[in-house]
Amino acid sequence: MTKANKQRYDLYLNTQETGIIKAAEVVLLESSGQLMKMGFRYTEAFREHPHAFSLEPVHLPLTSNEVEFQCAGGIPGILDDYLPDEWGRKVLATLAFYRDKRKLDRHSAIDMLSQLSNSRIGALQWTLSDEEPDYGMGCDIQFIKRAEMAAQSVDDPESISEHLDEVSLLYLANAGTGVGGARPKALLYEKDISYLAKFNRHSHDPYNNAKIELACLHMAKEAGLHVHQGKVRSGINDRDVLLLERFDVVKNNTNNYTRRHLVTINSLLKNRETQRDRGGVFRYDDIADIVRIHSIYIEKDLTQLLRLMLFNRAINNIDDHERNFSLIYDGEGYCMAPAYDLVPSLTMGAYPVAGFQYSPTAPKPSEITSKGKIFGLPKTVVKQIADEVINAVEQWQDWAQEYDVSDEDISSVSNVLQI
């Protein structure tokens, strides 16, 4: 006999233009832990707000009609973007096991939502019906050592599990489940600055990820990319931690904090009939198509996309999957979010996730001018962007030395650069 589970939620939005407002009501129906249906409806109060907008412009237009999703093995994007990825699910499962003495069903959206804290990336918050939202900023940075140690224990439990106590888990649950990806991380704040902390993995990293990613971010800025900056804090349990300034947090004129709403490209490419991730071939051209339809700064975003494609190829970033690109709502409309997760792979010859046109790989910056117009941008602009990316990446050793990357790691990355 299958076990059915039905749960109702309210979706709150917290932006500078709307304030905290109940934007939608949602019903989830699961059978044996698998999501079968999702019902979604915008609230009247939100629809009538002068700054109302579609929370997901492809599948959830701003309308008074209820939208029902049949979920044949998939999860609607507005929920999928909110649920934790591999790392967050590890944290929640560990927390439930040690704190609540129960095994969490990692496949159940309802189970996952029941464990999530109020510390999230983005402007949305899911609450049970009639519960009030509470937008948290994660943990005070004074607890960074404890959060880092708990993260290492969850990531590699056999190595240092003796450090995993309930207090550490609670810190991590409040700070480490609101962001996606597989890398151990947490949301932290220091006075009036909010950070995404990314921890070097105890035994799995091929290089000092914190220092190399910081160097790559500065190199990306030199290449003309829109990125947010950060810093490395050393000596955290004898390891380095990368602190990235969050681009979804906005401080308003009254010193209160609001958010910017984010939608991943993965969400926008969901299959309409099944809500599954699209799968198959993913190309930078697909992002360009979305930008042309949904961005309010089309030319600017296509330029950013070209820079990003060339930069990823130049540093051998092969983890350019659909969740690593997002649109952000800036108060006027959607546009491309700042670039993130710009890290090189030391594996040569492997295909990246995102291809270009009919090739599984994007061209090198030095090859791009032979392609003519790219994303509709004229050849003169394409050449200028390619030259700027080449000039920036040629300075890799200088950037790496400035941010204290070891000689060994400098050499390892130098060997995979493809200008």
Word description of this protein:
The chain has 419 residues and is α+β, with helices and mostly antiparallel strands. Among the domains are: 4-82 and 120-128, no CATH class; 263-414, no CATH class. It has helices at residues 44-47, 77-80, 86-99, 109-115, 144-155, 157-160, 166-175, 209-222, 265-268, 284-294, 298-314, 379-393, 396-402, 407-414; strands spanning 4-15, 19-31, 34-42, 67-70, 124-128, 139-140, 185-190, 193-199, 230-236, 239-245, 249-251, 257-259, 262-264, 282-283, 326-329, 334-336, 354-355. Helix 3 runs antiparallel to helix 7, helix 10 packs antiparallel against helix 11 and helix 11 packs across helix 12. The longest helix has 17 residues, at 298-314. It is globular, with a radius of gyration of 21 Å. The model has no long low-confidence stretch (mean pLDDT 90).
Secondary structure: elements and pairs:
Blueprint: E1 4-15, E2 19-31, E3 34-42, H1 44-47, E4 67-70, H2 77-80, H3 86-99, H4 109-115, E5 124-128, E6 139-140, H5 144-155, H6 157-160, H7 166-175, E7 185-190, E8 193-199, H8 209-222, E9 230-236, E10 239-245, E11 249-251, E12 257-259, E13 262-264, H9 265-268, E14 282-283, H10 284-294, H11 298-314, E15 326-329, E16 334-336, E17 354-355, H12 379-393, H13 396-402, H14 407-414
Helix pairs in contact: 3-7, 5-7, 8-13, 10-11, 11-12
Fill in the keyword field for this structure.
single chain, 5-stranded antiparallel β-sheet
Mean pLDDT: 90
Biggest pleated-sheet summary? 5 strands, antiparallel
Write out the strand line-up for the largest beta sheet, numbering strands in chain order.
4-3-2-1-5
Termini Cα gap: 58 Å
Continuous helix count: 14
Please give the radius of gyration in angstroms.
21 Å
Q: Extract low-pLDDT stretches.
A: none
Structural class: alpha+beta
Outline: globular
